[in-house]
Amino acid sequence: xxxxxxxxxxxxxxxxxxxxxxxxxxxxxxxxxxxxxxxxxxxxxxxxxxxxxxxxxxxxxxxxxxxxxxxxxxxxxxxxxxxxxxxxxxxxxxxxxxxxxxxxxxxxxxxxxxxxxxxxxxxxxxxxxxxxxxxxxxxxxxxxxxxxxxxxxxxxxxxxxxxxxxxxxxxxxxxxxxxxxxxxxxxxxxxxxxxxxxxxxxxxxxxxxxxxxxxxxxxxxxxx
Length: 224
Prior knowledge:
alpha+beta; two-stranded antiparallel sheet
């Protein structure tokens, strides 16, 4: 996740958040990302007005420790948002603003970019303000982004990278079904030091099996 840069007719798809299944209405994502709603979060298009809150929340030392350097000014985040919208229109990248359901302030981002034409293989990443850590916000948002990646973008293989030293990031990815596949030695330059990274992947068949299991568990809990 460290290397992802900072710089139609509607149809229903199903996703599963910690509180149970939700219905997400999608549109032509290149023209505008669908609004994805889970138990705690709503993911939506980035807006220029998100720059100030993203600057405040994503430039702290604890957040930036294991990610590519974010913009250093509000204007820099505005340029990033403009870049993200252009990349979305080109069909190679999608970036969601994370908001708490019922509120509209952006508290982080989820990103998906193609690493193979047509999104056969894609990489995803995320950055959340530290007040949201350990609250379930990540898991809720991650499950929505996975549903978007596999059902809307038709990704076959969804990859992520996390620095070996990034214990929180590694645990977060494992919690949402990412499988460790190997160590990428000295593959991430941060503060003048090359760090080893863990390569994770989720395959579409793995995600669908996990989704079906969660749906069945949710169904049985409602029956009983």
